[in-house]
Amino acid sequence: MTSLAAALGIGLMVGIERERHHYRDNRHNLTGIRTFAITALLGCCALITGGQLLLAVTLFGLITLLALSYWFAAQEDPGLTTEVALLLVFILGAMTVSHAATAVAIGVVLTLLLSYREKLHAFVRTQLTDDEIQDALTLATAALVILPLLPDRYMGPYDALNPRTLWLVSVLMMSISAAGHVAMRVIGPRYGLPVAGLFAGFASSTATIATMGAMAREKPELLGSAASAAIISCLSTMLQLMLLLAAIDSASLQIMLLPLLAGAVATLIYSAYGMLTWTGGPAAIELGRAFNVKIALAIGASVGIVQLLSAVLFAWQGSDGLLLATTISGFADTHAAAASVANLTHSGKIPEAAIVVPILGALSSNTVSKCFMAWVAGGKAFSLRVIPGLILVLMALWAAWWLG
């Protein structure tokens, strides 16, 4: 009974939308609410009573009837949307026997696609540009085709390079830039970039700063908004470190809470100052491409160089101390250093009080990387706004630990 009820619901839902659509367009169509409801029940009953063989025979008969219907009504309605939707409803009716929840979810998505037909067509034809479509396809290829094929292991000199990690950095660069592009389309350039920078910082604050710097270099009118977005991405780093330490060792979070809160407050103050004083740019600009592939690949390569140099220094110095190791690893990533220190504390290998300086050392070296990225990617005007903020945040971290 559950599968029959789900099938009937799917058929009625899609059939109501098709019935109203044909009525609004003053077109007579043989496929309405009753046809869709009966077709969904037909698929469900065929699978229950006769199994897959009867389902296949019934599907063949339905396809034949739809082909004849389309042949006679092609001049009035040359589209195939309703016919294909009817076939999908038949299959969804059969799916309710074993996957009712999935079938209903697909039915809802189908109804939404049919209901928003005009808006979707208008969006694709009038809102999206050819460059944006090409960028979306490029990003999809990089993330869904190339990334899964790359080996996820360390190799090369000193086993320092992970191809998938380096390519992931480039994908993040493109994704961050695309997120900023979308945010500017929706909110506008003044506040769109800072919002994008906040969320992108959870993926990589360093990559966010590099992306915003490249955007500021290409579009000088976005300099203030891009600089604010770069600074506010540091807030994501503080929040992410809090969550990471809480998940691994709550005692470590208690010790690091004051410095991280101080860094978060300094980030908020400086980014708010930037948004109030730097972001007086135009209300509308020519956005252009969503991202620059060459810059994204260059940033990924630079991260690989930093990792290789860190591995060389670590092999040269040896394991002389936890501070050296975390500081070196902080050039590439702060979270890995913080996680390793918290794990050592949780296992009882080092006292809780000994974690602060190594983690702050990783944050310090990571700040150096951020300053370097800001200068290389964004140039002088961008770095003069971003680097003082990064130094202020770092000073707040160390001062809170020293005073505490």
Describe the structure.
The protein is built from 15 helices and no strands. It has about 400 residues and is mainly alpha-helical. The chain is elongated and about 80 Å long. The model has no long low-confidence stretch (mean pLDDT about 80).
Summarize the structure.
The protein contains 15 helices and no strands. With 404 residues, the chain is mainly α.
What brief labels describe this structure?
404 residues; mainly alpha; 15 helices; 0% strand
Order of helices and strands: HHHHHHHHHHHHHHH
Contiguous uncertain segments of 5+ residues = none
Percent of residues in helices comes to over 70%
Care to count the β-strands?
0
CA-based shape: elongated
Kindly state the mean pLDDT as a whole number? Answer: 80
Derived structural class: mainly alpha
Instruction: Tell me the strand percentage band.
Output: under 5%
List the helices and strands and how they pair.
Blueprint: H1 2-24, H2 33-73, H3 81-95, H4 100-115, H5 117-127, H6 130-149, H7 163-186, H8 189-200, H9 205-218, H10 223-248, H11 250-277, H12 293-317, H13 322-330, H14 334-346, H15 356-403
